[in-house]
Amino acid sequence: MSPTIELAACSKRFGERVALRRVSFTVPAGTAVALTGPNGSGKSTVLRVVAGLVRPTAGAALVDGTPAADLERTARGTIGYLGHRALAYRGMTAAENLRLMARLHRRPADAVAGALAEVGLGDRGDDRIDGFSRGMLQRLSLARILVTGPALLLLDEPATGLDSEGAALLDAVLGRLRGQVTLLAATHDDAFAARHADAVIRLDRGEVA
Known about the structure:
Elements: E1 5-14, E2 17-27, E3 32-36, H1 43-50, E4 58-63, E5 66-67, H2 73-76, E6 79-82, H3 94-104, H4 111-118, H5 134-147, E7 152-156, H6 164-177, E8 182-186, H7 190-196, E9 199-204, E10 207-208
Parallel strand pairs: 3-8, 3-9, 6-7, 7-8
Antiparallel strand pairs: 1-2, 1-4, 4-5, 9-10
Helix pairs in contact: 3-4, 3-5, 4-5
């Protein structure tokens, strides 16, 4: 079951820098929201707060009413977070990376082949990722999320590094999941937001513009 996300007067400081300033919005269960705005506007910080990777300095970031940073392990396992790093182990193959993720999330092993095929890496599963391009690593990151069967997707510039084929695969994946998961995506791409979001929230200097 996909969760409802709520930010309530959420603020975040990193030392003297204010990253978020009393940000409030709700993403109802099963809907998709795009976060837009210039670099440094707070988009990535919102995603990290909702993922429970950092705690708000003030206010709250709630996942179905529970502070994101306090979610139990089972609930945290339903969050698929795609950040700026691939979070994959070099020296291992693409399939080995996904099998490890499947075991950690207690997912069936046959989910690996399906996830690789869906992102266009079906014939590269036995290849070590050391030689993967930026776009291939981005595809692998998307497969890593898919193999966990997420209820909440948090995507930070998910089209970064993707060629036209990769972008089309990403569109297909998000189209398939539309309405089945709750989606919060940070993007500079207005066309991407128009295709995949039910609503758009623009941030500027850490505030809802």
